[in-house]
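User: Please predict the structure of the protein below. I'd like the answer in structure-token form so I can feed it into my own downstream comparison script.

Assistant: Understood. Taking the following sequence of 212 residues as input:
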Amino acid sequence: MSPDAIEQLFEALARERPEPSTELVYRDPFTLLVAVVLSGQATDVAVNRVTADLFAVADTPANLVALGVEGVETRIKRLGLYRNKAKNLVALSERLLAEHAGAVPNRREALEALPGVGRKTANVVLNEVFGEPTIAVDTHIFRVANRTGLAPGTTPAEVERRLLETVPARWLAGAHHWLILHGRYTCTARKPRCASCVIREHCAWAAARAIP
């Protein structure tokens, strides 16, 4: 994809969603971190349902540790892998209290050192809370990047690298949200909504199928 096409692609996405943001409901860096850890193999809608109950009693590291693994399990058991997620949430809360005075660190290395926190989770927190120009490649972004030809790759890490190399600096702050929301609501896995797609004129997938 040419630099001009990339500029036009993000201009179109920005017009469609001028203020993109996560659909996870959170109050502060800690509750966002918890929500993102819970979002693995779960929809944002499902996560928001359980965090409404969880955050009512445990919206700080200290309160979550006090709730304990079983208490967390009880409140998140509607999510997949809930037992492992509960253990990780209590462990990362203990680590935050012991090593960061209960605050969520703003450095990738420190975030990824927390139990249950991988690169994707760290990227979401760094981008959403701390304004870092990072892109967390999930299934939606992976699909959009490959379909459009914006940043094709065979692994999430490769797609992330190519996106960071390709996306102009002025669009990086919002690129994660624009791409994930576009994949979630327009460039869906099955039956993509090409007729209503604002970037179809720049999309290799649409061009190959002669979609006007």
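That's the full token string. The chain is about 60% helix and 0% strand.
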